[in-house]
Amino acid sequence: MARSSYFPPSMDSMISQLRVWPIWKELKHFAVSAACEDSSTSTRADEFCRSLSRDLAPSCTIAKELWLFNQLCVPGLRAIAAGEAALAQLIIISVHHAESLPEAVKRWIDLWLGQRNGHNNVLLALFDPVYQGVSNSMRGYLQEVAKRGNMELLVKSEDASDYRRHQGRLLSSMLRCRSDQNQPSNCLIELEMKKSEKPLPPLEKGQLWKTDNGYIQIWHIGKRLVDYKMMKQPGRKAVRTQATTIETLNEYLKNQKAVLTVASRA
User: Fold this and answer.
1) Backbone phi, psi, residue 39, to 5°
2) Cα dihedral 181→187→191→196 (10° resolution)
3) 93 in the Ramachandran plot: left (φ > 0), alpha (ψ -120 to 50) or beta?
4) Half-sphere exposure of 58 toward its Cβ, with a 13 Å CA cutoff?
5) Which residues contact 180 (CB under 8 A, 6 or more apart)?
6) CA 187 – CA 177 distance, rounded (Å)
7) Contact 66/42 with Cβ under 8 angstroms?
8) Pairing of strands 61-68, 122-127
9) Consecutive H or E run containing 160
10) How many CA atoms within 13 Å lie on the side-chain side of 190?
11) In what order do the strands lie in the sheet with 29-36?
């Protein structure tokens, strides 16, 4: 049965009241999938995950996948993001106050709701400070999502000090970018590093790729599209086959620094 709660900013008070917390404390691997509106809301999600890591078991590793709302507008990326969310213990939606979520985000939610296996998931909504506004209709929608997925729902609004700290970091980052424009050599370092990366081998049927969040198996390759399966452990049965463009999956594997563990079985 879904449970919805609003908690004060204290991390301890949030997680200690979770129904799944005793299970989470015993995990050796913890997966987080986050959808964020922009850079400031992604910082909010990052800080939550860092605080959470201090409360999990010392040997537990956290695999975090973060997607921006504009990325979820691309159907291929949205499908991949939904596959990750379906396998995650914690799904985060970090957003500014608004009447409703963008349509692409709602489609992403519908996708992972249909793929979940009923394990111990929690949906966390992170909002701006209360004094900046309210999002009652959005909260109502997320409560319904949690009910449909039989999940626990946590709702947390930033306090004023957290918000000012995030805004200060964002401003500092912008100022550094502007100052770097006068130093072309510094600006090109990251680009040069990306160019020097070793290209991935071509996608082929039967390949098994390992990412921080699990495994991706290549099921079929066409001229433009690729069928794949996303799973926590290799060899899992009854895993849904998904499809995207070859270009989209290649970009995803590159960004995730995926490792080819099983080559083609041709």
Assistant:
1) -65, -40
2) 150
3) beta
4) 0
5) 186, 187
6) 8
7) yes
8) unpaired
9) helix 160-180
10) 3
11) 3-6, 152-157, 122-127, 90-94, 29-36, 61-68
Task: Considering the chain, tell me which residue range(s) the CATH 3.40.50.360 domain(s) occupy.
Answer: 3-158
Fold assignment, 3-158: Rossmann fold (3.40.50)
The pLDDT tens digits along the chain (266 residues) read 455 544 444 555 677 778 888 888 888 999 999 999 998 898 889 888 888 888 888 889 888 889 999 999 999 899 999 999 998 999 999 999 888 999 999 999 999 999 887 666 899 999 987 655 567 889 999 999 999 999 999 998 876 445 455 444 444 444 444 444 444 434 333 333 344 457 888 999 999 999 887 889 998 888 888 888 888 888 777 677 888 888 888 888 988 888 999 876 55
β-sheet bridge partners, residue 91:
33, 123
Residue type at 231 in one-letter notation: M
Helix (H) or strand (E) holding 254: helix 246-255
For residue 180, give both structure tokens: 């770097």
CA distance 23 to 126: 23
Nearest to 172 by CA among 39, 74, 78, 42: 39
Tokens standing for 51?
């605080």
At 21 the three-state DSSP class reads helix
Query: Which residues 6+ apart lie within 8 Å of 201 measured at CB?
Result: 260, 263
Q: Is the pTM of this model over 0.85?
A: no
